[in-house]
Amino acid sequence: MKRRTFIMQSSSILVSGLALPLVSVAEQKAKKKQEEEDDVSTNEDLMREHGVLNRILLIYDEAIRRIQANDKDAKFDPAIITKSAGLIKKFIEEYHEKLEEDHLFPRFEKAGKLVDLVKTLRTQHAAGRTLTGRIIANANKGDMQAIRPDLASFLRMYRPHEAREDTVLFPTLHSIVSKHEYDALGEQFDQIERKTFGGDGFDMAVDQVTELEKQFGVYDLAQFTPKA
Ligand SMILES: [Fe+2]
Ligand SMILES: [Fe+2]
């Protein structure tokens, strides 16, 4: 009996020993994927959100071109503007800029670094929200001529705004927070993102902007390569 018990125990260990790695592979894969997502550093996270903004700015750019062309071939559904501006509102203004306002700007202000720049960036966030509100309202009315100058103002402000953040503000963050705080901030951003969007907000935003680009005919990257 003793020997049998031993064999039974060994075989159950063997069985669970075999079964365990199978479960673990799936678990490990999920864990690895989660870790890879968590690996996005604070600045990379903010800069790739600027990438989403840039892709919407391309849609704004093309919209301005088509409104100015003012012929029937250039006519387009105002919904493209409503949806693009809606994505800016949800993903940039209410999420990305909120991260900057709640977690980045106060650290610079407290450290007394780039205070004038931060003041201008804050003012521009507010101005951007006013423009977006007006762009959505006019797009809902289908008033393309009223939208055009606001799209132009938005582009003119946000290109230098985000470029200054990418090249001056974000790089300086390393000098005002410790390595540990920098890493913790990235993890905190990840948690806020999951809570805000119920998943990976960046992936969702990229999918949405891709869909809008396709609808508007600006998705194919090769079309922007000069012919010669
Ligand atoms: Fe900003
Ligand atoms: Fe930004």
Query: Radius of gyration in whole Å, from Cα?
Result: 24 Å
CATH superfamily: nmb1532 protein domain like
What best-fitting shape do the alpha-carbon axes yield? globular
Question: What percent of the residues sit in helical stretches (DSSP H or I)?
Answer: over 70%
Q: Report the bound ligands by name, code or SMILES.
A: fe (ii) ion
Query: How many beta-strand runs?
Result: 0
In the CATH hierarchy, the architecture is Up-down Bundle
Task: Describe the 3D structure.
The protein has 228 residues and is mainly α. The chain has helices at 2-38, 42-69, 79-111, 115-141, 144-176, 179-197, 201-216. The protein has a single domain (45-218), classed as Four Helix Bundle (Hemerythrin (Met), subunit A), CATH 1.20.120.520. The longest helix has 37 residues, at 2-38. The radius of gyration is 24 Å and the shape is globular. It binds fe (ii) ion (2 copies). One fe (ii) ion binds at residues 46, 50, 96, 100, 162, 165. One fe (ii) ion is lined by residues 46, 50, 96, 100, 162, 165.
List the helices and strands and how they pair.
Elements: H1 2-38, H2 42-69, H3 79-111, H4 115-141, H5 144-176, H6 179-197, H7 201-216
Helix pairs in contact: 2-3, 2-5, 2-7, 3-4, 3-7, 4-5
The chain binds fe (ii) ion (2 copies).
